[in-house]
Amino acid sequence: MDTIYSEMMSFIDTKEDWMRERRRDFHKFAEAGWHEVRTCSIIADHLIRLGVDKVLMGKECFKADARMGLPDQEELDRVYQRALEQGAVMPYAEKFKDGFTAVIGVIETGRPGPVIGFRQDIDALGVFEDKKPGHKPWEGGYASVNDGEMHACGHDGHATVGMTVAETLMKFKDRLCGTVKIVFQPAEEGVRGARGIAESGILDDVDYMIGIHMYDRNTEEDYSEGVHANEEARKLGKPQIGLCYARNMANAKLDVYFYGKAAHAAHQQKGNNAFLAALTASQAIYAIPRTSLGDSRINIGQIEAGSGRNVVCDRVKMVMELRGFTQPALEYNEAYTRRIIEHAAAMHGCTFEIKNMGATAAVMLDTPEFVDELAAMAREKLGLIVAGPAPGSNSEDYSFMAQRVEEHGGKTCFFHCLTDFPDVFHSTGFDIDETDLLSGAKFFCGAALHLMGL
Question: What are phi and psi of 328, to 5 degrees?
Answer without folding.
Answer: -60, -35
